[in-house]
Amino acid sequence: MKVICQREGLLQACQLASMVLPTRDIKPVLKNLKFTAELGQATIYATDLELGLKVEVAGVTVESPGVALLPATRVIQILREARVAEMELEVTGHEVVLRGGSLEYEMPIEDAAQFPDPPEFPWDEAAEITAGPLKDMIRRTAFACATEVARYTMTGLLWETTTDGAVRLVATDGRRLAMTTGPKLNKGKAQSVVVPSKAMNTLERCLPDDEEEVQVGLEPRQAAFKTGRVTLTTLLVEGRFPDYKAVLPKREDIKARIPLHAGAFTSAIRQAAIMIDDETRRLSLKFAPGMLTLSARNANSGRSRVELPLEYAGAPIETFFNPNYLLDMLKQYPPDTSMEIELISGAHPALVRAGDDYQYLIMPLT
Amino acid sequence: MENLPPTWNILHVDMDAFYASIEQRDNPSLAGKPVVVGGGSGRGVVAAASYEARKFGVHSAMSGVVARRRCPHAIFLPVRMDAYRVEAQRIRAIFYEFTPLVEPLSLDEAYLDVRGTQHLFGSPLEVGRKIQQQILDQTKLQASVGIGPNKWIAKLCSDLQKPKGFVVAPENLEAFLDPLPVRRLWGVGERGVARLASLGLRTLGDLQRFPEGPLVKALGSHARELRAMALGQDERAVTPFRQAKSLGSETTFTRDIDEPWVLAAWAMEQTEEVAEGLRARGLLALGVEVKLRSGDFRTRSKQCKLARPSQVTSEFWQRVRGLLEDLCGQGLLPARLVGVTAIDLVKPNEIQPDLFDTIKNPAPARLDQALDAIRARFGGEAVSRGSVWHRRLEDKAEQETSEDGPGPGESTQD
Asked: Would you say the ipTM is above 0.90?
């Protein structure tokens, strides 16, 4: 195999693919990137056996096709340090050689057959959705996923497609829940799958901000996404996602609807949380006519009290939250975003709405 | 003394002969008699002695043999730690009525910082009186109280007129401390007394008057602390209670164990013990850890989070079983030791409730309650899970056939 690559293009492809490198030591060969050169094009593929990412390398000239495993960390280092425009990648009898300008690196050959191939995917079935809005949807929900293995089904995002093709994403760790509904797929059927959060976060980083289309394929056990030069395939989380509809408050139960500005609310929470007890993380929010009072107290360091005027005329309600759960959500929105918080009582989950298509539910502390 | 200096905010409350007093209270026939808790077998040490026994020179941490020699007619009783713990919790609850700044030192003593509570409960003097009285009313037990500007002085005061003492440090601390012997100093034992004596220092007054430079030269950096104490100074703040971070049980076997099911049966028993311990203390664990030590002393442990904060045996066991299997797969068999520890303990009011937890399955928790009640009444082995029972059965058979050595040793650590 012999290929001439533009250094920038190869570096970008390697960096993108390296996002899926396994974080744990599951199989040594997976610390590599698989470089495949075919007539006229080359791809980089990385996988952790659950999630795979294939990136088409921009600006290559394939002199002779072939396959090579590249040690990810080293090759990215080389490409970052090299100050040349083009590099040549060649597999000789004994080595993988990367050279350009006055640089030459030789690395031992590893058996490419040991490296799994990207799964086949029936792209004919795939639907399309706009990249920019999907990127926002993922960003505003994926942070709420569980990280504990013990909550396995919550480590993924629920991807629901309604009969008319509208996509809804739901993420929860049991303490808070983020839900958003976005643009429609151009075709498809009602479906409901749980996509691992690592796959969704990786996809979010690969997606462009613009109106470009993303191809989406959902199968019973795997999902795939394709945009520009990138193809992402992932196994799905098996098991039942919790019944999120059952915990959403019913419209008729809501006792208070209070408008808030994301920026002012964020500042008030951060100001009050300075005195929070690190073990209990209890922040008190007292909603009273015309005023929200936030306070925290810590047996060692003292207490805080922050007032935020608001438009509310109902009965006073006090509730306690872990401030991080509010801030995690608030930082996904610009400061001038108008939101609304809906309360039943201090003991019931509170619902924050941003626009018509975003809902965020938090369980209060007792 | 009604007008305390404004910085006299620290209380030290110390129960008088706590364990022994509980025994005397619960069994009126013991009142006025010398009672010794612990050390009865002759091999252990004395955990507590009533004031009647102390007259004969019996004190805690003394070996049971010596205690028996000094006071042969004393009534020796076994330690009933659970009963003492219950009383300690009642007493602690009284403290928290007056201030959140409570630092327990052990079951029977604590520091309290009552600054800023004057408008609610009166002066520190009044608070001290109220606490002493409430403890007596609610538990029929006596406490001694010391009040001063810091922890060292408060503790010193509570000890000066035991039992039922109530001592407030006077404003002139130096004069107050002057005649006291140096062994009163915190952290000064027999050897320390001897070293100070070699410098001619017998009382705190001697220390006050000794220049700091030469003292540091003679005793090292520790000298500065001693001198500060002798002058009545102590910068340590009252640090509120940090509850135990873990609760565990581990067993070292008399012979190494090769069969995974036997190990699992041990781990099961430990899991039950740990979960029961959490229930008894009203705590929940966020995670669990399993430890395995091989016959050749390689020790590995693995931990994981529980699906939700729990004190339910079966919820622990689901995780413990998996962790133990993982460890057994690491070539550690035959094993010499296995242990189960509940980690990241929290109180129920410190938990973030779960959105989806509204429909709980009450069955496993009810089973635990029933088992706890049976064991409390009929003893630890009155009822057991199948695998544990099976293991015990094999153990007994083995003990009958091989005569060498005692049964498996067990240790529980808090």
From this structure: no
